[in-house]
Specification:
heterodimer, A: about 190 residues, alpha+beta, globular, B: about 130 residues, five-stranded mixed sheet, 3 helices, 5 strands, about 25% strand
């Protein structure tokens, strides 16, 4: 593995009731987070290929960890997303190098599909910075019941020379979703939108 | 809110290249209350920008006063333009109260600084399907 990983944390949330009503079955989502060394911290480097390759490794590892934490068949995952927080000695572009060129393909390979753009966010911050990972349906971006977000945070990451990388997966949409729009039963799931 | 954003960015809708939206629901609410923002928040920006084609990236959460939210940003006409994948952190010290919702809209006028990880370029956009 090219990535030098300091630690991995996996967060699982299970919503059982909302506003006094049972959520049946409980709605579950998992985020797998890796804290890695940033090989380019503190200097401007034009070619960020090393981080792109690290992204490829983490796409597979973090998706596998998140799916394992949910305890479901990978193909049953419904929403996904990715995000990164780069430490203070890095550039936002370092987060982009990890997230965008090569991370998506292994995510989709693990899940078996994934026609939709993987929603993402990125930021630069200090230790303990909260990171919001924006979720969307993995086959049709416009499924309204699946627009969501998950916040993760590690008190000791990212250090100045680190990058915190997260992939999250869910087994369902928002609990008690009821604002209309395209539903998951209506999707064709080929163009990634509808 | 969409019109205000264009104004503070200089007044020319044609200068806007990226957008996003978000909501933080106060502790007495449900996350679903934040989902009500998808239609008015998203379509308002697309209209003000003259009919932007791409889905408006979004996120939401429930939180107390002072909660921070990373609002994701993507290109307004083609979601896959890589140089424009971005995010802005927002928040207000005294919001949302338990019975409030904080609503956010974001616009940008360009790509990430020193964007250099390849992918679809803004100049290559066909601009019909909102993706590429």
């Amino acid at each position: 593995m090219r990535a030098r990983i300091r630690k991995i944390a996996v967060f699982v949330e299970e919503t059982q009731t909302e506003m006094g009503r049972k959520v049946e079955p409980p709605s579950r989502r998992a985020a797998a987070v890796a804290v890695i060394e940033n090989p380019f911290a503190g200097k401007y480097v034009e070619d960020l290929s090393e981080l792109m390759n690290i992204g490829e490794e983490l796409g597979e590892l973090l998706t596998q960890r998140a799916v394992a934490a949910l305890g479901i068949e990978a193909s049953r995952a419904e929403s996904y997303c990715k995000a990164a927080a780069v430490g203070e000695n890095g550039e936002l572009e370092h987060a982009a190098a990890v997230l965008h060129p090569k991370l998506g393909a292994p995510v989709r390979k693990v899940l078996g599909k994934g026609a939709a753009l993987i929603p993402s966010s990125k930021k630069r911050g200090g230790l303990g910075v909260p990171l919001d990972i924006p979720l969307g349906h993995k086959d049709a971006a416009f499924v309204r019941s699946h627009f969501d977000g998950m916040e993760v945070r590690l008190n000791d990451a990212p250090r100045a020379n680190e990058i915190m990388v997260a992939v999250a997966v869910t087994d369902s949409g928002r609990p008690l979703a009821r604002v209309g729009g395209l539903t998951k039963d209506q999707i064709k799931g080929e163009d990634g939108l509808r | 809110m969409a019109k205000s954003l264009v104004r503070v960015l200089g007044g020319e809708a044609s200068a806007v290249e990226g957008y996003g939206k978000g909501a933080i629901v106060g502790s007495a609410g449900e996350i679903e209350h934040g989902a009500l923002w998808h239609v008015p928040g998203g379509y308002a920006m697309r209209e003000v920008l003259g009919g932007a084609k791409a889905i408006v990236a979004s996120t939401k959460k429930v939180g107390g006063p002072g909660t921070r939210l990373d609002v994701p940003v993507t290109h307004i006409n083609a979601s896959y333009v890589r140089s424009h994948f971005d995010a802005i952190e927002v928040g207000l010290t005294d919001a949302p109260r338990a019975d409030e919702i904080l609503l956010a809209l974001v616009m940008t006028t360009g790509p990430r600084i020193h964007a250099r990880v390849g992918g679809l370029q803004a100049s290559e956009v066909k601009g019909k399907d909102g993706l590429r």
